[in-house]
Design brief:
The protein is an alpha/beta fold. The chain has 2 domains: about 270 residues, von Willebrand factor, type A domain (Rossmann fold); about 35 residues, no CATH class. The protein has 10 helices and 11 strands.
Length: about 325
Amino acid sequence: MFKWLKTRSEAAPAPQTAPESDAGSAQALLARVAWTSARRLDGLLQGNYRTLFRGSGMMLADLREYGPQDDVRHIDWNVTARMQTPHVRQHEEDRELAAWFLVDLSPSIDFGSMGTSKRNIAAQTIATLGHLLQQHGNRIGAIVDRGRPSVDIIPARASRRHLLHVLRHMLTAQSESTEQMTSLASLLLRASRLIKQRSTVFILSDFYSTSGWEKALTMLASRHDVVAVRLVDPIEQDLPDMGMLTMRDAETGEQVFVDTSDRAFRDRFAQRAQDHEAALLNALSRAGVDCLELSTAEAVDEGLIRFVRQRQQLMRQAPTGVGHG
């Protein structure tokens, strides 16, 4: 039943944003997020990128009194309140940082009922986070699963040109249709073998997969700071009344004829979606993995800002110390 949560109506195809298909599109996307999402996040983080990237190598080296040459964004307001004198944070860069994007680019990634697709949401996320990382000299890489055995590996490098290469690939790579559902386990195991140095790892997926991926996630999270970026569409969680429809699994092509005007059917659909979500969040929690949920019905920066604030709150609750793990 879960696989029908990854569907689209044959009678009424979901509207989608025009496909981003060339170098100019990647450049336009990066320029757009640099002036919107990334700028908002940069202001919220105030130079403390540990809030978003716990493995980012922005280690707190020292605190000292604020001087005329200092950036006000680096003021530590908690210490300032205690000392009654403005103090700023001094960070030391860990030049060995790498951040990896693990992308589930199975056919269902192109679904979207709200004017954009999950692929475009994923691309905006990579553009925003990648911009924040590369402008501070950090490296980014990607492992893109287009359907077994089509997996593309883009090594971690630090430059705007490299980020554009990742975005172009994300926007144009073709998903491979199979008769089986996505296997997240194979993507996660490949990442565990490939990524040797401790890194921040973002998994971009709708997390509809064959079972057995939880152990691979726990293994990956034991060595890296892992964030699950869950891509969702409202119809996958709450099916509206659209009459009689032929629904098709985006990956296997299997079809079923359903009556969405049947309230009992919609209730069962919603319950299955809730059960799947509860099981997913439980699995992520057991692995010690934070979840960032991004919907096709919401601006990407809103979801990212919500996530950053959650992490900031958790950090304020944690014991204060120098450096981080």
